[in-house]
Write a structure and sequence with these properties.
The protein is built from five helices and six strands, in the order αααββααββββ. By secondary structure, the protein is of the alpha+beta class. The protein is globular and about 40 Å long.
Length: about 150
């Protein structure tokens, strides 16, 4: 039984130590793109907001209603759920952590606050970013919201 515990501890230790900091340039690129998304949202431009997502059928958005696959389906979900400026409100992101999973994959954990005239919304998100030709794009978005 002791060897099982040691093996599990070794596995998780190796995983934790394998996670590395994202380079300064990559961090700046990711954060810049994230805050451009925030600005695009706050001006009501969902099409510009969607530019941060990789335009592929491999994109996955996971929220309270389950996963949605594909860039178009994700855009359609946003346009249906936030069809007016009043529903969109004002969005504020906070970055909690960014880690490198490989040279071309990074993960960002953050929180959001959506201020609206109606009920406000807040929650947390985990974004997996993929680097393609020196550009970072969101390939997976897992967002959990509470009101």
């Amino acid at each position: 039984m002791r060897w099982i515990y040691s093996g599990v501890l070794f596995f998780f230790s190796a995983f934790i130590f394998a996670q590395q900091s994202v380079s300064k340039n990559d961090s700046i690129s990711i954060v810049t793109k994230l805050f451009k998304q925030q600005d695009d949202w706050n001006t009501g431009d969902l099409d510009a907001f969607m530019e941060a997502y990789l335009n592929t059928e491999n994109l996955v958005f996971s929220g309270s209603s389950g996963p949605i696959y594909g860039w178009k389906a994700t855009r359609d979900r946003y346009k249906k759920s936030y069809s007016t400026r009043q529903l969109m409100g004002t969005l504020d992101f906070e970055i909690l952590n960014i880690i490198s999973l490989s040279d071309s994959v990074a993960q960002l954990q953050g929180s959001f606050y959506l201020k609206r005239n109606m009920e406000d919304s807040r929650g947390f998100f985990t974004l997996t970013w993929l680097k393609i030709k020196d550009q970072w794009f969101i390939i997976s978005d897992h967002t959990s919201a509470s009101h």
